[in-house]
Amino acid sequence: MREIRYREALREAMFEEMERDESVFLMGEEVGHYQGAYKVSEGLLEKYGERRVIDTPIAEAGFAGVGIGAAMVGLRPIIEFMTWNFSFVAFDQIISNAAKVHQMSAGKIQVPIVFRGPNGAAKQVASQHSHSVAPFYTHIPGLHVIQPSTPRDAKGLLKSAIRSNNPVIFLEGETLYGVKGEVPDEGVDELIPIGESRLARAGADCTIVTWGRPYYTVLAAAEKLAAEGIECEVIDPRTLRPLDTELMVQSVKKTNRCVVVHEHWPYGGPGAEIVDRLQREAFDHLDAPLERVTGLDVSMPYASNLEDKVLPTEERVIDAVKRVSYAK
Amino acid sequence: MMVIRRFEEEAARNYAKGKIGGFLHLYIGQEAIAVAAAEVLEDRDYIFQTYRDHGIALARGMAANVAMAELFGKDTGCSRGFGGSMHLFDVERGFLGGWAIVGGHLALAAGTAFKSKYAGEDRVTICFFGEGSTNIGGFHEAMSLAGLWKLPVVFVCENNQYAMGTPLERTSPLKDLSIKAKGYGMPGDRFEGHDVAVVQERLAKAVDRARSGGGPTFVEIQTYRFRGHSMSDPAKYRSRTELEQRKQQDPIVVVREKLMGLGIDENSLDDIDIEVDEEIDAAVRFADESAPALEDVMMSTVLAREDGA
């Protein structure tokens, strides 16, 4: 094991998969000569040239569609959205085309494509640049949706996503690119399976399910709660569609309570889906209502003090855990 | 052309009988374009079309019974009942679909052309759409990228004069749509689509250009549909006189007269008609008698298998 940043983990995944498979290419705005708006693709152009690292005009619907078309006839495109906020102008391509053509053609056409880029709020980029988009894409049959929290998961899941025969929505954390974490040594070809949850912290008192940026908020909150004698078990689903609830159900059977913490808005989405499944699959084991700590149900304000309130905080996580634990 | 015409007439009849559901957009009046395109293209080439897709599917060689079964929503249909009229696919023949979001498939066509260039393959993509598509963003972005990257694709605008019920003069400031090509750095062409030989000759130029590395072409073919936009459209926005005038240039009448002018015996043309009638009648019987679409296929085709099987 060695420690690298989330950004570098993603870059390594792309290097390794492009090296392994000639049909993999990267396309997006500023991915080549500029070295990536967030420097995730740094060095790829120098290694693989303009044929496989392709700068595009500002035309998300166009290049998303080009990627889908290319995937339909055998290539494995990685389409980078500079941020997922810009995917909305390519929504029709992803929903009506990428997600639908496999079934519409009775399984004759596959779309092995990865759409990736930074997702969620950064810092004071306001309403139009702070979307946490998982609820939009997890709604659609025909898509995989992955949102890795750690460098290791980012690398192993991106490699699996690139090798998948299906369209994958790969949501990176805009504020996580600089986060360091352990990943296997160079030369270890670790593929993390799509659709498997991971136990991030063991504990007997309260289950917390979380992913993405709040993952770190939750881990910090769990340490504070431990100091007060409440041991939280933290589970990261990593993939939001298909959703693996097995670990969560097992954990809730042990702790008898659960808090789900996510950045996206409270209305619907994977957070609500998890709560729905847990209340059905572990109903007899629950000692308290399932709680959620979410991004507040507002458009993201620019002002820093308000932005801090909108995103899930340690304080809100601690309060929720105490509520379901009937602790003061 | 007769196969397409008779297929469409029978489809309309069976729609009225309730055997075909959903939306049904007929190609009657535009047949010369699909037939000419199929003549020009090689087997390895790719084709995209809108939801008005029966014509090109049949011209490309899809069996009428397989196409009709799809319209009937049957397991024997080309998309096993999952696509219907608007989503015919014949992957083996390079026909990559009927697509039903206006303008949404143009970028896909640029994508298959991108693959040809990426892999150094000698395959041209041809992409059909209506004049209504030329106003939507999908058209602009696909044309931009294809022009920029000099992709081997031919964009064919089948200008049938009406975007659903709205005539061209109320949807575009241009009368000549082919001048749009210039804005995307590609050549444009414009001609009438009722004479199959003319369409073939002109499309061949654009396809040859794409094949020889000359990049994309935007072609506007002026045509006319004799039926409404779909089966639910009585086409009250146009006059009977206009329709009758246009029918003077029915591509089937035009080709028939031309063939007779070349000395082809009328009886042998009638024999073709009889043969086609039988083929289409058999297709309807086949579709009617086929088993319905299957639930297990539905559940197993949401996602592709990851083991490649």
What helical percentage do the residues of chain A reach? 25-40%
Mean pLDDT of chain B: 96
Q: Estimate nothing, just give the exact number of structural domains of chain B.
A: 1
Oligomer: heterodimer
Strand content of chain A: 15-25%
Corresponding CATH superfamily of the largest domain in chain A: Thiamin diphosphate (ThDP)-binding fold, Pyr/PP domains
Query: Under the CATH scheme, which architecture of the largest domain in chain A would be assigned?
Result: 3-Layer(aba) Sandwich
With strands numbered from the N-terminus, the spatial order across the biggest sheet of chain A is 3-2-4-5-7-6-12
What is the number of E strands of chain A?
14
Key structural traits:
heterodimer, A: 328 residues, alpha/beta, Rossmann fold, 2 domains, 7-stranded mixed sheet, 5-stranded mixed sheet, 12 helices, 14 strands, globular, B: 309 residues, 6-stranded parallel sheet, two-stranded antiparallel sheet
Describe the secondary structure blueprint for this structure.
The complex is a heterodimer of chains A (328) and B (309).
Chain A: E1 2-5, H1 6-20, E2 24-28, H2 44-52, E3 53-55, H3 60-72, E4 76-80, H4 91-98, H5 101-104, E5 114-119, H6 134-138, E6 144-146, H7 151-163, E7 168-173, E8 180-183, E9 198-201, E10 206-210, H8 214-227, E11 232-236, E12 239-241, H9 246-255, E13 258-261, H10 269-281, E14 291-293, H11 304-310, H12 314-324
Parallel strand pairs in A: 2-3, 2-4, 4-5, 5-7, 6-7, 10-11, 10-13, 13-14
Antiparallel strand pairs in A: 1-8, 6-12, 9-11
Chain B: H1 2-16, H2 31-40, E1 46-49, H3 54-59, H4 64-71, E2 95-98, H5 106-119, E3 125-130, H6 137-149, E4 153-159, E5 162-163, E6 166-167, H7 180-183, E7 188-192, H8 196-211, E8 217-222, H9 240-247, H10 251-261, H11 266-289, H12 295-300
Parallel strand pairs in B: 1-2, 1-3, 3-4, 4-8, 7-8
Antiparallel strand pairs in B: 5-6
Helix pairs in contact in B: 1-11, 2-8, 4-11, 5-6
